[in-house]
UniProtKB/TrEMBL annotation:
InterPro entries: 6hp_glycosidase-like_sf (IPR012341), LANC-like (IPR007822), LanC-like_prot_euk (IPR020464)
Xref: SMART domains: LANC_like
Gene: LANCL3
Keyword Transmembrane in annotation: yes
A Pfam family recorded for this sequence: LANC_like
Segments passing through the bilayer: 106-126
GO cellular component terms given for this protein: plasma membrane
Key words, A-Z: Membrane, Metal-binding, Transmembrane, Transmembrane helix, Zinc
A molecular-function term among this protein's GO annotations: metal ion binding
Binding sites annotated in the UniProt record for Zn(2+): 282, 328-329
Species the sequence originates in: Scleropages formosus (Asian bonytongue)
Protein name: LanC-like protein 3
Length: 408
């Protein structure tokens, strides 16, 4: 294989019936603890540096600390981690409360909605009745994103748009066990997503019913594109009318047919150049897989699972990414696809593959050959996402890509 600009060559032998020795609790727990220590040395704690939201701001570290503290294997450190998480998220909440632009407040991964959601989770985990305050702030944002064109750049995607707000509500429901938004509120947001997609598809004369753009680009992947918007529509399909539901499923099948060699182009209508191929959660198969996983969980049609399996095969070949350890376009984000497939199939081959990717993160080859990351502490680009992945490797039956619920 020619040397690839974007990924390291995967030289590992594939699964032959046994998992890796030396990747059990006694090996991985100390690595998680050491990585958390490294993160806490780097994370900025003053209000001047609280931008970046959950994506690459300090708030994402608070989520990772919360996530580790929820795992029973870290019970001894639970209180200490939650205390640090609260300290970090409190600074972020203050910044969001002071934010004048209400559109920025509604953003899930880059703004307020995600920060309020994580604050509620952290407070609740600590047993503080205060958790209701950020929840109320979160709930009040629904009116901001209900108008059909509330953002000029594109109102529907995951980072700043409606799909993200719905995703945050889903995570809160999963973690707190309560429905945050009323059925009416959810319905209003879902209807805006469908109507917005219909209008755009009609205006641009698309041969399929729903399409969206973000800053003028018709993305397909999880970060800003069609796949995560449809994934959220499926997650809330109970509130859709039969007609709306039909449009969503037609669009899911349309997207399935855009596959090129087990992958999806970053934007609609482009051909994938093999030497420049994006195999990332943000753009490409590792993120699109979650939509088809959701589709499969709902209606059990085998072609959706087959699509997920092809995504995982591509990730095994090309997922040892040079762009760092993170979950957005790094090795941990690739490895999460294997944990997803393990949950869908129960096949231990996928745990083995995730173990191999975890092992690779700590090799000299990776350290020497991967790009340096600006915010090494961050959740999506840095080590906080890696920590979530390592914790999930210890509990594969519960594993899930951070803040991206498929099983709720």
């Amino acid at each position: 294989m020619e040397s690839n600009k974007r990924c390291f060559e995967n030289r590992y032998a594939d699964y032959s019936g046994s998992l890796l020795a030396g990747q059990g609790n006694e090996a991985v727990v100390p690595v998680v603890v050491a990585t958390v220590e490294r993160i806490l040395k780097k994370v900025p704690l003053d209000a001047a540096e609280c931008d970046g939201g959950l994506y690459d701001g300090p708030a994402g570290v608070a989520y990772a600390l919360y996530y580790v503290s929820e795992c029973p294997l870290f019970a001894a450190r639970r209180d200490a981690y939650l205390k640090r998480a609260k300290h970090i998220i409190d600074v972020s909440v203050k910044c969001v409360d002071a934010e004048q632009d209400k559109n920025l407040r509604v953003a899930f991964l880059l703004g307020g909605a995600g920060i309020y959601a994580v604050a509620a989770m952290v407070y609740k985990a600590m047993g503080l009745s205060d958790f209701v305050k950020p929840l109320t702030k979160f709930r009040n944002l629904w009116e901001v994103c209900a108008p059909i064109h509330f953002l000029e750049c594109g109102s529907d995607e995951l980072f700043v748009g409606r799909a993200g707000y719905l995703c945050a509500a889903l995570v809160l429901k999963q973690r707190l066990g309560i429905e945050i938004l009323s059925t009416e509120q959810i319905k209003a947001i879902c209807q805006a997503i469908i109507e917005s997609g219909k209008q755009y598809a009609r205006k641009k004369r698309k041969p399929f019913p729903l399409m969206y753009s973000y800053y003028g680009t018709e993305y397909l992947g999880a970060a800003h594109g069609l796949s995560s918007i449809l994934q959220m529509a499926l997650s809330y399909q109970d509130v859709l009318s039969p007609g709306e539901r039909e449009l969503v499923w037609q669009s899911v099948d349309f997207l399935m047919n855009q596959e090129q060699n087990c992958n999806w182009p970053a934007e609609l209508g482009t051909m994938i150049e093999r030497e420049n191929e994006l195999v990332h959660w943000c753009h490409g198969a590792p993120g699109v897989a979650y939509l088809f996983a959701k589709a499969y969980l709902i209606n059990k049609r085998p072609q959706y699972l087959d699509t997920c399996i092809r995504c995982a095969e591509l990730v095994w070949q090309k997922g040892l990414l040079k762009k760092g350890p993170g979950i957005c376009h790094g090795v941990a984000g690739s490895a999460y696809v294997f944990l997803l497939l393990y949950r869908l199939t129960g096949n231990s081959k996928y745990i083995y593959r995730a173990q191999r990717f975890a092992e690779f993160l700590f090799t000299e080859e990776f350290k020497a050959g991967s790009s340096s990351v600006n915010r090494i502490y961050s959740l999506f680009e840095g080590l906080s996402g890696t920590v979530c992945f390592l914790v999930d490797l210890l509990q594969p039956d519960k594993s899930e890509f951070p803040l991206f619920s498929v099983f709720t």
